[in-house]
């Protein structure tokens, strides 16, 4: 299951190839193809996984979430937080950080309008 949709996988290939080539999901970047950079990070059953490492045969029965599957309200919080904080060190691997911050979290803002994350 990818972004809450079921798919039939016909050939065993790297998760990143299935996401990019078959599903045309472009948020999953192919930065190093070795699991070092984190630009291909997705969530598999709520845990951060570098999509260039696992084969699709290991993903059977798993729930995969990419940036395309994050609700719009949560995306807006990330856009605001990253824009205000200007996290230069996250520019290359920002996709991984966005995904790791998303599931199981609730976002709130304080009196000054600063957004912060709380566990549900």
Describe what this molecule looks like in 3D.
The chain has 120 residues and is of the alpha+beta class. It is 25% helix and 17% strand. A hairpin with a 5-residue loop joins strand 4 and strand 5. The longest helix is centred in the middle third of the chain and has 14 residues. It is globular and about 40 Å long. The two termini are 23 Å apart. 25% of the residues are buried. The C terminus is likely disordered.
Provide the fold topology.
Elements: H1 15-22, E1 41-44, E2 47-50, E3 64-65, H2 72-85, H3 94-101, E4 105-109, E5 115-119
Antiparallel strand pairs: 1-2, 1-3, 4-5
Summarize the structure.
By secondary structure, the protein is α+β, with helices and mostly antiparallel strands. The longest helix is centred in the middle third of the chain and has 14 residues, at 72-85.
Envelope shape: globular
Main pleated sheet: 3 strands, antiparallel
Percent of residues in helices comes to 25-40%
So how many helices? 3
What is the average of the pLDDT values?
A: 78
The gyration radius over C-alpha positions equals 15 Å
Give the strand content.
Answer: 15-25%
Total count of strands: 5
The order of strands across the largest sheet is 2-1-3
Task: Give the class from helix and strand content and strand pairing.
Answer: alpha+beta
Keywords:
single chain; 120 residues; alpha+beta; three-stranded antiparallel beta sheet; two-stranded antiparallel ribbon; 3 helices; 25% helix; 17% strand; globular; disordered C terminus
């Amino acid at each position: 299951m990818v972004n809450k949709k079921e798919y039939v996988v016909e050939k065993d290939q790297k998760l990143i190839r299935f996401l990019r080539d078959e599903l045309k999901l472009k948020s999953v970047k192919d930065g190093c193809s070795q699991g070092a950079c984190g630009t291909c990070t997705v969530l598999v059953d709520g845990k951060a996984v570098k999509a260039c490492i696992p084969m699709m045969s290991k993903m059977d029965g798993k729930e995969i979430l990419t940036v395309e599957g994050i609700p719009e309200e949560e995306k807006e919080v990330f856009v605001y937080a990253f824009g205000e904080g200007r996290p230069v060190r996250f520019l290359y691997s920002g996709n991984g950080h966005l995904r790791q911050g998303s599931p199981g979290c609730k976002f709130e803002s304080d009196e000054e309008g600063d957004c912060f994350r709380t566990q549900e």
